[in-house]
Specification:
mainly beta; four-stranded antiparallel sheet; single chain; 47% strand; 0% helix
Length: 116
């Protein structure tokens, strides 16, 4: 069973930084492609960054490219998202999941609020 717990969100001013963490509690984490997703009020959940298991190749949505960095620590079963130069439009609840996602494994997410 895939269990995921996100943390690290908060309130930050535009231009600031946050680092999100995702603790994964399933045995095959190191062999699983993972992603960070976000959902803003009134919007559908979207993939913002992904990282492959086999070569750690990364993907970024155009809206965050050059500002966000996804990484993973396989021995710690942890996924990270470093977010720099944050903008008000980055305000959302951020979730981690496998990519493509297990629909029954969404965690509670972590709220990121960027003030202008």
């Amino acid at each position: 069973q895939v269990q995921l717990v996100e943390s690290g969100g908060g309130l930050v001013q535009a231009g600031g930084s946050l680092r999100l963490s995702c603790a994964a509690s399933f045995r095959t984490f190191s062999a699983t492609t993972m992603g960070w997703f976000r959902q803003a009020p009134g919007n559908e959940r979207e993939l913002v960054a992904g990282i492959a298991w086999i070569d750690s190749n990364t993907y970024y949505a155009n809206a965050v490219k050059g500002r966000f960095t996804i990484s993973r620590d396989n021995p710690k079963n942890t996924l990270y998202l470093q977010m720099n130069s944050l903008k008000p439009e980055d305000t959302a609840v951020y979730y981690c999941n496998t990519n493509p996602p297990h629909e029954d494994s969404w965690g509670q997410g972590t709220q990121v609020t960027v003030s202008s």
